[in-house]
Amino acid sequence: LHGFPIDPTIDTLSFYVVFMCHHIKPDSVDSYLSGICNQLEALFPSVRENRRSSLVSRTLKGCKRLYNTPPNRKLPLSVEHILLLLDAFPNTSYDNLLFRAILVCGFFGLHRLGELVQPDRVDLRDWRKTIRRSSVTLFADNFSYILPTHKADPNHHGHHVLVSSDHPDINPVHIFAQYLRARDQQFRFQPALWLTSGGNVPSRSWFISRLRHVLPSSFAGHSLRAGGATYFAARGWSDDRIQ
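Predicted structure:
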């Protein structure tokens, strides 16, 4: 079509990426390149090396930014949503206490939901990422715990999370203390901080199923972190402090 030589050189592969990304999704182009390398390696032994070149890799990376489908971002939770969820799940049962505590920790601690619950897929669960009860410190006006690792901490250095009671509409310290007392009465010798009434670390679906009882699917796990960041920005926190 373009009169290029058939040899899949670095330039040819780079031009191919740009041309195809105008017609199909860049992720599909990535798969196409793998197929091309598989079919042509016998005739052109350097095709895989050319595919891994800086020019081709950066071209594909740039096209993914330019032409990929926009992400479907979930809506952030507001304080009003938190109050609505707290009313829907009163402190009348152990699992309600757990849900309420995770809710306020995720919102005011700016957590990703995956940092507080375990994945639904068993093969993705990692005990090293589980928050320990022994790391908790509770005072009258704040509480804290150690997050063993997170998405930006691949070396498991850990992070100290502190949540205060300095919020006009909700007192997260009171909600967390209620759960902690119930948890210690039932599971005094269990190491994990978050435990369901069955003695298991709650899963993502466990939390989301309760969230869905009150809020539509436009809200999900990341709504906690997004909502907390929005809340602190509205209170006048700087971007650096929120980060």
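Summary: The first strand starts at residue 137 and ends at 138.
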